[in-house]
Amino acid sequence: MNPIASFLIFVCIVAGLAIGNWVSPYLAPVFFGAAAVVALSLKMANAWQKFVILRMGKLQSVKGPGMFAIIPIIDNVVAVIDGRIQTTAFNAEQALTRDTVPVNVDAIIFWHVHDAEKAALAITNYREAIDRVAQTSLREMIGSSMLAALLSDRKEADEQLKLEIGQKTAPWGISVSSVEIRDVAIPEALQDAMSRQAQAEREKQARVILGSAEAAIAGKFVEAADIYAGHPTALQLRAMNIIYETTKERGATILIPSSMVDSLNPSTTTLALALASKGVPGPEEAASRKVAVSSPIRDEGANQMT
Questions:
Q1: Between 52 and which of 79, 130, 138, 212 could a Cys-Cys bridge form, CB atoms 3.0 to 4.6 Å apart?
Q2: CA pair distance 31, 34, nearest whole angstrom
Q3: Cis omega before residue 65 (within 30°)?
Q4: pLDDT digits (tens, 9 = 90+) for 254-304
């Protein structure tokens, strides 16, 4: 009973008692009857409510929100429909996916009544029906989906459930706002297998990246070898630089093979090849030229002495 009707009933009862005591006891039942009529006829619906009214078994109207009156005994309020958005949680336990994997899925549906007349007259209990339809649709969706798609494409599964449930509840005057899958639980043994598979995929990717890096490094080494082949002195300088870099750390003991030390000393043949490539005479050629120049000078000195 709404507050306004309660206040009017109280006023009628107090007035009937007062008039019955002070004026005439025959007038008191009139006020008591008015209080009963107010209690049976005056109704008030909140902003989110709809009252479905039947008159002699037939639909008379849908009232609300606000204050309205009905005819007692003839009119009957058969349902009060809440038009606000409501939520219903549902789940599917041990449902098999398309690839025969048992999963437990928890979901929630957001819905509201857009047609109070259909919700009251087309179905007995629309709340229970929504729960049953949601569970059935969820199991059908799981059975037609692969496990990988169910785990990765949550948004697509939500939209599919929304469409399926919405089509089934539309004749009842109910609209589905959204469906959200909250959790997908899979067996622990399968979780371990999926974890090992993911680890193997990561190792495979790491090996591919390492192989690409090795190929790039080998290409750079080939380029460096081509450069050092034409410049032997540069190779020796690079070797000495490597030794110098390794001796920067304090307290480090470095053992260098004698063959490596000998290789750092440029031999006569190596210098000759390097100088010949630049057009400079080698050491042997320079020495022969020096001997050739000094011999005429010695001959001239000998002639002068004689």
A1: 79
A2: 5
A3: yes
A4: 676 666 656 656 554 444 444 444 454 544 444 444 444 444 444 444 444
How many domains, in total, are found in the chain? 4
What separation in angstroms does the CA of 119 have from each of 43, 44, 63, 84, 115?
Answer: 20, 20, 14, 14, 6
CB 120 within 8 A of CB 79: yes
Contacts (Cβ under 8 Å, ≥6 apart) of 162? 176, 178, 179
- The pTM assigned to this predicted structure is 0.61
Cα gap 147→163, rounded to integer Å: 21
Q: 90 in a domain, yes or no?
A: yes
175 in the same domain as 97:
yes
Look up residue 252 and give its amino acid. Answer: A
Domain hosting 120: range is 86-186
Q: What is the predicted pLDDT for the residue at 232? A: 75
Residues 164 and 94 reside in one and the same domain: yes
Q: Which residues of the chain have pLDDT under 70?
A: 191, 193, 244, 246-252, 254, 256-306
> How buried is residue 137: exposed, middle or buried, by Cβ count under 10 Å (0-12/13-18/19+)?
buried
Q: The CATH number of the domain where 157 resides is what?
A: 3.30.479.30
**pLDDT 10s digits, 277-288:** 445 454 444 444
And the tokens for 75? 């009119």
CB atoms within 10 A of CB 268: 10
DSSP code of residue 267: P
Q: Does the residue 246 lie in any domain?
A: no
Can you tell me the distance from the alpha carbon of 178 to that of 65, in angstroms, rounded to the nearest whole number? 26
